[in-house]
Amino acid sequence: MSTPALDVSPALKTEILFEGVRYSDALAEAAEHAVPNYYPYRFQEGEADPTGTGKATIPYLMITEDQTLIRVMGNGSSAWSVQGSRDDGYRLTNDDSGLEHAITFQPQDVWMSTFTSDGFPMAQVGVSTHGDMMVINVAPGCEYFLKKHDGQSMRCTFCAYGAPDERTAHLGQVAGQVDIPEITLRRMQEVMAAVMAEIDIRHIYLVGGSLADPAEEGQRFLQLARSVKESNPDRVPVSLGSAALPEHIIDEFHREQLVDAVCFNLEVWSEELFSKVCPGKNSYVGYDGWIAALEYAVKLWGSGRVYSAMVAGVELEPEHDMDWQQAAALAVQGAEDLCSRGIIPVYSLHWPAGGKERPDYQTRLRNFFETLAVEYRAIRERHELQVWEGFMCHRCAYMQLECDVDRA
């Protein structure tokens, strides 16, 4: 089975997501003024290492001339590298083809090195940006990490982000406490104002760690959304990124006009896969309950305003025993079903920690991702659905292709 071809801009984005970039002097210079990557560049054996440490900080997000946002991955074997300078402009170059593309990187904005009025670092308040999206996450700790059933952790198998750690401590998040501390919300509001004064924000996304009780999680997000609304005078579109919530709480979000779109993340398609990959979501909400909540949201906000993030490629983990063709067929089936209900799935590329050690993994994952992207575009067209500009766009979707494919 051959993979369909992507258009120029999505094809370049896919190439960089999978091939990454080699270390260079220009990449090192860019790291001095760009938002730093969560994952450092790790030098391969035999690769020249000017740091002498085996690793180096690199930029997090790359921006092409047409404003496509791409997450940066370091790879000493890549034919792609960054050349140029901040003064003369950066270029993404390919040794094999000779292709060049003018690029920039998401900068470290002024607010990131500023303090709130009570002396707290703004960068630690739970507000971040990627492109023109502001993400609010003032309660990142997920209770699923603290729960076990018959010895099995309830956390999603792909997730390492939600573990309670120093972030939850300095945000005042305490296990078992539903309400967000008022001081955390005041600081958040102050940082929101600073961000929007410096950046043209077009989307606001509310996220946070899950609670074992969906009703309690809903109450926490209601508190958060009301506080965000107070600090959003220009009515920048706000999207709710909680777990699937009870209907009476979904009603409250709609009645108070707190959010403009909803994104309850199902993560994977099929009840069998959901129970394995998302045991906490399956235990505390359930597969059918999750889809029912998405359908209920469609009744209120309408078709095209309800989304579900999906982890594209987790199906290829060895415990699921699928080849890439079977995984792509399952994902496409899910896209068709969800779109038929007015729900738009958004597929984020899965970068597993150990996947690159399997010789054919990257090839299989790329075949899966490209096939899904092309076939899913046809599904959206057939159902007359398109990702709403207020929810997400090519300027902020750094690990997804839907917005890039639709505008190509």
Summarize the helix and strand pattern as letters. Answer: HHEEEEEEEEEEEHHEHEHEHHHEHEHH
Please state the structural category.
Answer: alpha/beta
CA gyration radius, whole angstroms? 21 Å
Shape, per Cα inertia axes: globular
- The CATH class label of the largest domain is Alpha Beta
Helix content: 25-40%
The tally of structural domains comes to: 2
Q: What does this protein look like?
A:
With about 400 residues, the protein is of the alpha/beta class. The chain has 2 domains: about 10-105, no CATH class; about 110-405, Alpha-Beta Barrel (TIM Barrel), CATH 3.20.20.70. Helix content is about 35%, strand content about 15%. Strands 8-9-12-13-14-15-16 form a 7-stranded mixed β-sheet. α10 links the parallel β15 and β16. α4 (about 180-200) packs across α5 and α5 packs parallel to α6. The radius of gyration is 21 Å and the shape is globular. It starts with 7 loop residues before the first helix and ends with a helix.
Throw out a few tags for this protein.
2 domains, TIM Barrel, alpha/beta, seven-stranded mixed beta sheet, globular, 12 helices, 34% helix
